[in-house]
Amino acid sequence: MNIFYPIQFLADLISYNLIGLARESYLASAVNFFIFDTIKIFILLAVIIFVVSIIRSYLPPEKIRVILSRKNKYLGNFLASLLGIITPFCSCSAIPLFLGFVQAGVPLGTTFSFLIASPMINEVALILLLGMFGWKIALIYIGSGLIIAIISGIIIGKLKVENLVESFVYQNSANGNVNLPKMTTNERIVYAKDYTLDILKKVWLYILLGVGIGAWIHGYLPADFLAQYAGSDKWYAVPLAVLVGIPLYSNAAGVIPLVSALTEKGVAMGTTLAFMMSVTALSLPEFMILKKVMKTKLIFIFAGIVGLGIMLTGFLFNLILK
User: Fold this and answer.
1) 54 near 187, Cβ under 8 Å?
2) C-alpha distances in angstroms, 160 versus 96, 131, 165, 215?
3) What is the DSSP string of 243-291?
4) Interior CA angle at 79 toward 159 and 146, to 5°?
5) Closest Cα partner for 127 from 141, 146, 117, 143?
6) Is residue 169 a contact partner of residue 293, using CB atoms and an 8 Å limit?
7) How many Å apart are CA 306 and CA 277, to the nearest integer?
8) What does the pLDDT look like over 201-222, one tens digit per residue?
9) How large is the greatest C-alpha to C-alpha distance in the chain, in angstroms?
10) Is residue 175 within 8 Å of residue 37, measured between CB atoms?
11) Cβ(280)–Cβ(120) under 8 Å?
């Protein structure tokens, strides 16, 4: 059973029954998307921030830093990317963990490896791809996503852009001589609740703006737009797929049915993989939330490096999967 069914039921009830929109209209699609994703994101953020805060109360920041700041050949980036794979969060809900890593003293490049891998690669999407397209495509998906996350994190780490992160992110950062005090169960709950509310107060407007823009494009962009302009013979197909995918916020599992439909209409597999990766790893709501914790320049650096990696992956697999 779809765990988000109650939210979808509520979105349908509001869109079609209370507001009275026609199900087939573009406006109904946009409004339904906005209601569903807004509720879903806020619930996911609240639950995940709360749970992560509880976990953080048990984990000394020094231990996290030791695990993810290895000096041995970028092992930290590799471990962070693997951790991202086994944490099936969307791009927006991965951000609280990203903040926690930064505040624990984990290098910025390592945290970006996690931020990229977590939404881009997850086991649900892997299983769906395996069932729809076979093991070859599934392995390509997980392997290319892992490589993009590791290399992108390494590049961002070498650029030394810590000054482009907002100062409040580092306010609770731990140094090597500080450990978390022991807390009672009630104290952990109060700490997690206060931290959750604080983060939600900082990002709620950005969530509404990002999802609103994504909902408009989701509702009014024709379903066959990519199939018409992104055929395998078009040199611009992959960059166009990436650019169009950015505002269409979704998780990987949610976008795979669209990927299947696009391939059936003649869109090359490399193009569809690039589209899926851009939807999950470079979502507009994510940028809206990141704007609160980092400077615009760093967001462009992040998006540019990851976007270039996704495009190269798309071009490569269009060549080898003809």
Assistant:
1) no
2) 22, 42, 11, 35
3) HHHTTS---HHHHHHHHHHHHHTTB-HHHHHHHHHHHHHS-HHHHHHHT
4) 75
5) 141
6) yes
7) 10
8) 876 776 777 677 767 766 776 6
9) 63
10) no
11) yes
Helix (H) or strand (E) holding 253: helix 252-264
pLDDT of residue 64 exceeding 50, the answer is yes
Answer whether 0.70 is exceeded by the pTM. Answer: no
- How many other C-beta atoms are found inside a 10 Å radius of the C-beta of residue 197? 13
End-to-end CA distance of the chain: 36
Residue extents of the structural domains in the chain: 5-320
Place of tokens 């998780």: 251
The sign of the torsion formed by the CA atoms of 310, 315, 321, 322 equals positive
| CA–CA gap between residue 190 and residue 103 (Å, rounded) | 19
- How far is 138 from 276, CA to CA, in rounded Å? 13
According to the model, what pLDDT value does residue 150 have?
92
The listed range with the strongest mean pLDDT (84-98, 179-193, 205-219) is 179-193
Helix (H, G, I), strand (E, B) or coil at 207: helix
